[in-house]
Structure formats: C-alpha cells, structure tokens
Amino acid sequence: MKKTLIYIIVAAVLVGLAAYKIAGNKEKQTKEVKEVAKQVDKINVNIVTVSRENIDTDYSANGTFLPKQEMNQSSEIAGRIVNVLVKEGSRVSAGQTLATIKRDAIEVDVSQAQNNLQNAIIDNQRYENAYKTGGVTKQQLDNSRLQLKNMQVAVKAQGVRVNDTSIRAGISGTINKKMVEPGTVVSVGTSMFEIVNINSLKLSVLVDESQIGRIQLGQEVPINVNVLPEDSFVGRITFIAPKSDASLNFPVEIEVQNRGNLKAGMYATATFKTNHGAETQNMLTVPAEAFVNGVSSGQLFVVENGVAKMIKVTVGKIYGDKVQVLSGLNGGEQIVTSGQINLDNGSKVNIIK
C-alpha cells in the first residue's frame, strides 16, 4: 500500500512537470508567432545612406585604331599582269606604278588610231580647200570636220588605255596585301593591292549619350594603348557623329599621329577630361540602381521610421554606377537600393542588415 502511494505521488509530479513544460513551450511559440506576424506586413529592402563623395568625372571609352586612309587598288582594264613592282610591306607614294599589264594589243590599236587620224587630217584639208572653190557642199565639209574630231577622240581614248596598263597607287601608304603575281589575268575592277596609310591613325570609340555633350571637335584626348603600357599618346577629336546608334551611343573618331609603334587594329582607351574642374569633384550621389523605373524618372524611396516614402529628385550627370543629385536630397537620408518593385508609397519595410 505504501509503495502504491509512492508511485502515485511520483506519477503526479511527472504529470505536473510535463504540463508545465507544455505550457512554457506554448507561451514561447505564441511569442514567436506574434513576432512573425509583425514582420508579415513588412517588405524586406536594402538601403544606403546618402552622402557626398569625390567622384572621378573623367570618362573613358575603348576602341580600335583604324588607318587614316585605306583603299583596294583595282585594275581599270582587262589583261595579263607583266610586272609586279612592289611587295607586301613596301611604302609607296600616290601615283607610283605598282604593276604593269601587257599592252601589245593596245599598242596596235594606238597605231591604227593614229593612222586613221592622219588620214582624217589629210581628207579634211582636201575638203577645206575644195569648199573654198565650190567643189564640195557645206554638209560634206561638216562631215569631214566631224570625222576629224572623232579620230582625235579615238587617239586620246587609246592613250588612256595605254596609261591604264600601269597600275598606280591612289594614295601614299604601305602595301598591306598583294593579290596578284606576274602572269595573273585580271578583269576590270579586280582588286590587286590593299594600301593603308598609318602615318596617322583614327581611334574609333563609342561615347554614351550622357557624356556626348562634354566633348567637342578639336579637343585633345589622352590615349592609353593596351600593348604599349609604357608609352603615352594624345589625340585630337576629328569627328562626332550627329546621330547615335540603336544603343544611344555616338561614334567618335580621334586622330593620333603615329610615331612608328602604332598599328591599325590595336586596342586602346581614350580618356575624356571634364571641363568643370573642382565644381563636380565633390557631389551628392546615389546608386543608379536606387531609382524607380530608371534614372530618368528621378524617383526614389526614402525610409523614415520604418516606412518607405517616394520622393522626386533632380538628377545631374551619371558617373558609372553613381548618379549626381542636384536637388531633393540633403545627405543622410536612407535610400532603398533593392526591393523597390514591391513597394508602394507608405509601405512598411524591414531593413536587411
């Protein structure tokens, strides 16, 4: 009987402890549920505190060097190549003979045209004399004069053909590629030589629309060439496209005098210096990603007392991933940088650390 009583007391104690534990767990769960409930109506966001900072206002653009001049020298007549007078790498001057085409048949035509001209001269003189004495009509004399002119033109045309048998360089430069050899038969328009002039080169780059207003024709631009890190170059802007491409970039060309170590096709970086100096070095900026519907909207969410409020700011220039703010912020504000898509004006937010 005594044992039974002990068992009953122990069992009662265990039941009491279990009940106490269950009650404690329930209270803890209730607290957790309440805490979660508080967060359910809040939207998670990342923020950044607005501040002033020194911004490098220089703008860089990458591009490749192009020859100032280049052309494919082609044949103006058909025929067989007799001589090729240059090789790849040869420097040539405008007008220099590069190759010759066989002209035996053309010289025969020249002789024939000259003979015809001499006959026309003699015939015309005979008609001129006869007309003075009334031996021929005015119409016959006019036909004779016309025949003489036609023969003179024919001689000139054959002279042009003879001249065209010498293939001459259209520009000064270097033979980059030779496409013919002696014995090659060419037709009119056949490409024979590729000539490039790299005494000066053009660096072709694309400039973003936000920066195009900062540059002008004639402006000097420092240039760094990737494969020549020890050398420094300066070019001058010679062309700014009046129209952008589909990506709102403007083609710009910068002419650089070649000191002999630059080659067409080299990759380089042009750095456009700002004209504003210290005025734009220290400025109020926010990340470009903070703007709602893009930088052009000027709309931002500011967090105040756990609530997101949409504001409108006036933006200035864009420097990489930073955007200058001209008005609408004073500094120190907390700006939402991610999670804006889920926000409305007045939404409660939970700042993610």
Keywords:
Helix Hairpins; 4-stranded antiparallel sheet; alpha+beta; conserved putative lor/sdh protein from methanococcus maripaludis s2 fold; 21 strands; 39% strand; 353 residues; Elongation Factor Tu (Ef-tu), domain 3
Helical proportion, percent range: 25-40%
Shape: elongated
Number of strands: 21
- At CATH level 3, the topology of the domain at 59-66 and 197-278 is Elongation Factor Tu (Ef-tu), domain 3
Q: Mind summarizing the main beta sheet?
A: 6 strands, antiparallel, barrel
Count of separate DSSP helical elements: 3
CATH architecture of the domain at 59-66 and 197-278: Beta Barrel
Structural class: alpha+beta
CATH homologous superfamily identity of the domain at 59-66 and 197-278? Efflux pump adaptor protein, beta barrel domain
Question: What is the alpha-carbon Rg in Å?
Answer: 43 Å
Q: What is the spatial order of strands in the main beta sheet?
A: 3-10-13-12-11-14
What does this structure look like?
The chain has 353 residues and is of the alpha+beta class. Mean pLDDT is 85; it is low at 33-39. α2 (104-133) runs antiparallel to α3. The strands form five sheets. It has a six-stranded antiparallel beta barrel. Strands 2-15-19-18 form a four-stranded antiparallel β-sheet, with no helix packed on it. Strands 7-6-4-9 form a four-stranded antiparallel β-sheet. The protein is 27% helix and 39% strand. Among the domains are: 44-55 and 279-351, conserved putative lor/sdh protein from methanococcus maripaludis s2 fold; 59-66 and 197-278, Elongation Factor Tu (Ef-tu), domain 3 (Beta Barrel); 104-164, Helix hairpin bin (Helix Hairpins, Orthogonal Bundle), CATH 1.10.287.470.
